[in-house]
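re: ur question from yesterday

yeah so i grabbed the chain u mentioned. its 295 aa long if i counted rite. heres the sequnce exactly as i have it in my notes:
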Amino acid sequence: MIYDIRHRTTFTYEDIVSVSHHVLHLAPRRHPRQRALQTAMLIDPSPGVDSKGDDYFGNPVHYVTVQEPHDQLVVEASSRIDVKPLADTLTLGASEPWEDTREALAGAADETLLQAFQFTFDSPYSVANDEVRNYALQSFEAGRPVLEAAMDLTGRIYHEFEYRGGVSDVSTPVRDVFAMRKGVCQDFAHLEIACLRSVGLAARYVSGYLRTRPAEGKEKLVGADASHAWLSVWCAGDGWVDFDRTNNVIPNVEHITIGWGRDYGDVSPINGFIVGGGAHQVAVAVDVSPSPLGG
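ran it thru and got these structure tokens back, copy pasting raw so excuse formatting
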């Protein structure tokens, strides 16, 4: 499937900003089922410093510095992305027992395992406690296949936690999300990651987009799509396998990956600092549409 994606962020400041520096994770990364056919970035005012590279996790990253005084900043990223469907060979119940995965990660006998092992530790936005671990162990019974257990955990969080905006923000600790039983996609990703790491498994945070469909008989609203978050679990036989608690699915052709890391902090779409500005407002509009090129 080929998608055209536009992500537009507008910062409106109360006072003049004299200089701003931003780190952008807005360009899609390549992986075995996804490739970017084209990408472009429009920034107004135009940055005096503009460079690209890859971050520690291999995600495309854009560094910009705007040195012109401004009271509004517009960052618009557009991409055309080709996403391939999952292979039909993934069988959750055929994965190895989760204890075997945990022991292999703890041993980290080769480079591949060592790369996965770094995702077994708490990170700033995903910290477990005993309650979280005990909750995870209800899915991870002795000898249970690791991917089957992960899917069960995904389903339990889906059914037992309410999706509700406005009750949390990116800094809300996992313990608070667990106590409230409410949150949004990034909260549930952080919670499930904390659950998985608490039992010794490797889990990483995935940032991207989800194609959404309008209600029957309704037109799709421009800007109605949004950034999305899910997670991946390491399994020796299958590598990294994605799970999306928000929709209780294994992500497929309608999930578009921007990047991955330990948690939201590693792949925040726009991060950085400004000099001046005072209070500010942020408006974000995201459009994900099938490309006329087909797929």
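noticed a couple things. The longest strand covers residues 2-24. also The chain has a mean pLDDT of 92.
anyway ttyl
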